[in-house]
Write a structure and sequence with these properties.
Layout (H helix, E strand, L loop, with lengths): L4 E5 L2 E6 L1 H9 L8 E4 L6 E2 L4 H7 L22 H6 L13 H26 L2 H6 L1 H26 L5 H12 L1
Antiparallel strand pairs: 1-2, 1-3, 3-4
Helix pairs in contact: 1-2, 4-6, 6-7
């Protein structure tokens, strides 16, 4: 009598089954732990996941698969050597400006504005007597600032064009500016 098991499916009582008959039936159900089961000695129906006899046999992990012999891997070239050589110098195309590159682009544009404003403030701060006395020096400084502004603008253009020459121009601009 203790080996007579019942389970509930769709509100209907199924059974009696022996434990060996019940386990395959529960295993075929999607979530066997929630299926209600009963046997003689239980006061009420219990979820199968709470019944020790069922969980120790039904819910234990399956034994590991036997190890298969190692498979010999044969690697073939994805493309013939002649075609692969033609892709030797191909570089991936840069796309988009985001993340740190976006921050760099913002700084580059603000840097240009800063150079223009600083040059204008410098020219306005020169007194007329000093301008007359050292005009060649001031024109030279204005020319150097204009060249630096031009370099900053060209560097920004290279940045937005995703040019591979941008990093070199950026380094030169930073050296010249400071």
């Amino acid at each position: 009598m203790a080996d007579s098991w019942y389970y509930a499916e769709g509100g209907q009582r199924r059974g009696p089954f022996s434990i060996s008959e019940l386990l395959p039936l529960l295993a075929s159900i999607a979530d066997p732990r929630r299926v209600l089961v009963w046997r003689h000695g239980f006061e009420n129906w219990k979820p199968a996941g709470e019944v020790h006899e069922i969980t120790q046999q039904l819910l234990q992990s399956p034994p590991p698969s036997p190890a298969s012999p190692p498979v010999e891997v044969i690697r073939e070239a994805a493309a013939p050597a002649e075609e692969a050589a033609s892709f030797k110098d191909v570089q991936p195309e840069m796309t988009g400006i985001s993340g740190w590159l976006g921050l760099l682009a913002f700084g580059q544009m603000i840097g240009i504005v800063r150079l223009v404003v600083n040059t204008a403030q410098y020219v306005q701060s020169i007194s007329s007597e000093t301008w007359v006395q050292f005009s060649i020096v001031f024109w030279g400084e204005i020319a150097m600032n204009a060249a630096l502004i031009g370099l900053a603008i060209w560097t920004a253009v290279l940045l937005f064009m995703h040019s591979r020459r941008f990093p070199a121009f950026f380094i030169v601009q930073m050296i010249c500016a400071y």
